[in-house]
Amino acid sequence: MPDPEFSTGSRGIRRGAVLTLVFATVLATAAATDCLPRDDGESHRRIDARAAGATVAREDVERAAAEAMADGKSPSEAAEEVVSRSGDRWGAVYDKGEYEEFEKALDGQYTGVGLGARRAGGGLVEVAKVQPGGPADRAGIRVGDRLRTIDGRDVARRPVTEVVALLRGGERTTVELGLERDGREWTERLTRTRLSTETVTVRRLSDGAVVIKVASFTKGSGARVRDAVRGAPSGAGVLLDLRGNPGGLVSEAVIAASAFLDGGLVATYDVRGEQQALYADPGGDTDRPVVALVDAGTMSAAELVTGALKDRGRAVTVGSRTFGKGSVQMPSPLPDGSVAELTVGHYRTPAGHSVDGRGITPDLVASEGAEQRARTVLSGLGGTS
Fold it and tell me: For the domain bounded by 110-196, which CATH number is listed?
């Protein structure tokens, strides 16, 4: 289930790949971003790991933008044309405002009404989640309410990503929702506001096992996973639910993986041919049973965690093959303040397996009833208290 107005699809190949997190987890749109830290002593530079094919030289994009600027044309449009011709599937160009929203989303914030959507029967759209304290919650909107229109537009049979995109907008702008509940139809006019996402949720099962659901790896999510593991009862198994997770900050994914590892390799990656490695922090819980639950919506940083726990023999993976988004992209600022995201390399799991275009096949493939299968496996591992 997508978080409010934040989801994980693609807003479009060209202008949507990078804003995964932004127009994704709360928006059910975009394609997740995986960001690796810089080691040059400066503030972290964000590098995205996403699936890609061909690449484009940064110099070509910057040259096209500079020439367009000199001719009085749009640098971002010129850069976008170069990226589009290159065949770099996940390369994209974003204007200054879009990229700022992207950065805020990675910090766990978004602008909207605190409402998530999902597909219901007959092509209809219904409310999937209402964020506590948000505009939708204050208006009395509930999970299961049918979402009929947004600003007068019929949303039936529209892609959920498009529906959620319509819910977003500038802070303090308004949006009118047409709703239906138990045969009663009404409208609500809501004012969009800045909200924080809840990317990590924890619940206890009746047998004592702990479910940690990670919706995306935004700022602070790794520490929340670590704290949840540390706070789990002694001997209780952990079901790490990464289904539908579009990725996020790789630094946060490494912290999350570290919760289950005592140091050692998490992943390797290359940036323009230079090999780098990501290592877990020492002191993680290496004793309690762990099952990682994944699906085709498990992408990028979430695949990095999956691959690390699987290859290191730290978790049994259950579900369906993951998305396969494992390329590294780096931002390049353009003269007009826009940003080009260009593919520069790829990452691999500890065993050296490439994720890009392949995904990760879980130890136990289960499409339907995957969570129950995962719980059965966890119980078999002794993961109950």
Answer: 2.30.42.10
